[in-house]
Predict the 3D structure of the following.
Amino acid sequence: MIKTDILIIGAGPTGLFTVFEAGLLKMKCHLIDALPQAGGQCSELYPKKPIYDIPGFPEILAGDLTSNLLEQGKQFQPGFTLGERAETIEKQEDGSFIVTTNKGTQHHAPIIAIAGGLGSFEPRKPKLESIEKYEDKGVNYFIKDPEVYRDKKVIIAGGGDSALDWSIFLADVASEVTLVHRRNEFRGALDSVERAQELKLLNKINIITPAEITALHGEDKIEGVSVTKDGETKIIEADAFIPLFGLSPKLGPIGDWGLEIEKNAIKVDTVDYQTNIPGIYAIGDVNTYEGKLKLILCGFHEATLMCQSAYKRLNPGKKFVLKYTTVSGINGFDGSRKESPKAVVKAIV
Ligand SMILES: Cc1cc2nc3c(=O)[nH]c(=O)nc-3n(C[C@H](O)[C@H](O)[C@H](O)COP(=O)(O)OP(=O)(O)OC[C@H]3O[C@@H](n4cnc5c(N)ncnc54)[C@H](O)[C@@H]3O)c2cc1C
């Protein structure tokens, strides 16, 4: 059982910044995310796109914002349960909660911060007979560890950044990489499309377009796939089939937790972003209130106010004085200390 002060569901920018704000108030955080990496929409949907409306950053790549947020929170030693979806919640007699993931990992915390954005991203699965039978037996919708594919024959399907980037990456890992896309055109960063083209010419990636995967083969695991091009179908040997058709957001299991929902978002009050269940907050894109804007900076603001409220819940009666980080410095949970240099008191003679 993982124990923490604030259990954050969703490691997008809002959840990541919560770690920092909570840390300033000496509260420890643990994050759960259905995706295999932190960053939410920023890292999953547009890591290489510049964002222009983060205060203090005239321009920052979404992927770099994620790295910076992770770096900023690191000193407060957050825990992570990645690649698992928060599935159920049980209120305990003392008012705390146990949240269990789809893989059975249990987390216990007095405060829950739902920072689930548009919901947990579910992979878009191709409509192929018996695909479920092969899931985790050669069929994977995410690549968690590329080493799994070392010296294997890999078929990737899709025409976006993920399909291109992983094909390029695995060209040096797998024994054979075949990229199948139903159109001739790819929708990805120009440098990725050009690199894939180069690797094709070097025979390091086999690209088949316009074509579709039409059947999967194998006894207990994937052994081959049928590829149909121009009405003709042939079977290609494969150890792995990775369809990368993007993700569709779904509020998912959180929608069944007894929270007040409006337009697929969680209703909160605007004092501290608490839901209708005391102790459960909802911050960032996942919440709704009058005037709500789904912007990163709004998530940061909500995380800050939510942490103040959580602190009061965890420390009833304890006086809290807001201190600027420039004045108080920061004491990391890892023993680190950051502070601005002190003024020197010295006579000038
Ligand atoms: C293409 C694009 C461009 C954008 N440009 C800008 C911009 O320029 N400026 C701006 O301010 N905003 C922009 N946005 C919006 C911005 O990305 C969102 O406002 C922001 O990501 C919200 O952050 P969040 O942390 O609240 O949620 P998200 O980033 O959506 O993260 C939520 C996380 O929660 C996880 N999750 C949800 N449910 C569960 C569950 N049950 N169990 C486990 N994990 C769960 C999800 O997997 C996800 O990783 C853009 C969005 C897109 C798609």
Summary: The mean pLDDT is 93. The radius of gyration is 24 Å. Residues 9-15, 32-35, 40-42, 45-46, 51, 53, 85-86, 115-121, 252-254, 284-285, 294-297, 299 surround flavin-adenine dinucleotide (CB under 6 Å). The helical segments are 13-24, 40-44, 62-74, 131-134, 161-170, 190-201, 296-314, 325-328.
